[in-house]
């Protein structure tokens, strides 16, 4: 869902982008989406750090299931 928000930007940059045909709304939306993705990825890693460490330790100690079944 899209909605209106107010963002303060350097006016000369805004005018420059508009004069060069850049869709500032799309540019802003893309930037926001990238930042959201980055923050969610960082949160996931932090929330699952202990579990990932356990899996890594288990794999280091016992190997992985697929190691026994590889044919290459």
Tags for this model:
72 residues; mainly alpha
Oligomer: single chain
Which secondary-structure class do the elements indicate? Answer: mainly alpha
The biggest sheet, with number of strands, parallel, antiparallel or mixed sense and barrel status, is: none
Mean pLDDT: 93
Strand content: under 5%
Number of helices: 2
State the helical fraction.
55-70%
Radius of gyration: 23 Å
Number of strands: 0
Q: Summarize the helix and strand pattern as letters.
A: HH
Shape: elongated
Structure description:
The structure is a single chain. With 72 residues, the protein is an all-alpha fold. It has a domain at 24-62. It is 67% helix and 0% strand. It is built from 2 helices and no strands. It has helices spanning 11-19, 24-62. The radius of gyration is 23 Å and the shape is elongated. It holds the Pfam family CcdA. Keywords: Toxin-antitoxin system. This is Plasmid maintenance protein CcdA.
Strand and helix map with partners:
Elements (H helix, E strand, L loop, with lengths): L10 H9 L4 H39 L10
Quick description:
With 72 residues, this protein is mainly α. The protein has helices at 11-19, 24-62.
């Amino acid at each position: 869902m899209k909605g209106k928000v107010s963002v303060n930007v350097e006016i000369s940059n805004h005018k420059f982008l508009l004069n060069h045909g850049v869709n500032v709304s799309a540019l802003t939306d893309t930037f926001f989406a990238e930042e959201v993705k980055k923050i969610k990825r960082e949160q996931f890693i932090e929330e699952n750090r202990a579990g990932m460490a356990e899996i890594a330790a288990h794999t280091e100690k016992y190997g992985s299931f697929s190691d026994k079944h590889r044919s290459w």
